[in-house]
Amino acid sequence: MAKSASPDQALIAMPSFKAMRSFVAAAKYRNFTRAAEALCVTQAAISRQIRELESHLGTELFTRTGREIRLTTAGTALFDAAQLSLLNIFQATERIRREKSDKRTLTLFCSPAFSALWLSHRLKDFFSAHPDIDLNVITTQHFQVMEPGITPDILITKTIDLGPGYQRIPLFHEVVYPVCTPRYLEAHPESGTPQGMRNGVLLDLNPYGRSQLTEQVDWNVWFAFQSHDLQIPASDSPQYFSSNDYGLLMQMALDDQGLALGWDHLVKPLVQQGRLVRPVPEELALREAIQYLMINEKKAGDPACQRLRDWLIGQFA
To answer: Gene3D superfamilies recorded for this chain (predicted)?
Structure first.
């Protein structure tokens, strides 16, 4: 005869889900009547659930003044935890429900810069062509350290050592060149030469937090590859700014604050729109720095995943 499980005291002592839902609604709307309308129940039902919850906890959760209710200190503490917990439950059940519906949800991993500068303005075309696919985009610089419970279907990354289970499709090699706004170049015409750029306001990409990238290209590296014996100013110079946030650097460049190194696949649309210009024709082609599309082998035969894969590859054709 199988041994019965011992009672789970934490689960036994936990308030009912219905009572917690009534409490969160009442706390959110600060009114029992509005909470009842939101949950499609009677006001009496809300009041009863709150009384039972307060009795269970041995403390008041609301102070009542006429029709107005306010959270007590205990009520505030419970609301902060309960609201987040119920939201997490809702999101989990929605994900499960969507998986059983006609719509498919795919998870795409990419870098923050790729998401903001490349993917964002193209997604409307994808959704227009594939209305039955929902997309969950997760941005990270650390593709080799994925959070538990999140399994990407497709990744766009330079990191190729993800272990077994992923097919690899090369997309393009990287090309890097200086960019700035037309207004900045007009105000600093000397930036039309490498020496002039050296004496300008350089917005530099530093390596902190980017250790998993295959190489680090900053202004010193770019000048060295162009065979210019130039060094950027010391980091305490007002003409130099450094950050590991590429999105920040590009926004500063767009705000006429200096010269940044532009990765062609990220800044090309901005150059084509005239929002950024290339002050010099020199560029650095990193033929060994290849961006790959990595697809989960378990999803490689899935029609929805194939459509996302083909769409992404088509954007680079």
So the answer is: Periplasmic binding protein-like II (3.40.190.10), Winged helix-like DNA-binding domain superfamily/Winged helix DNA-binding domain (1.10.10.10)
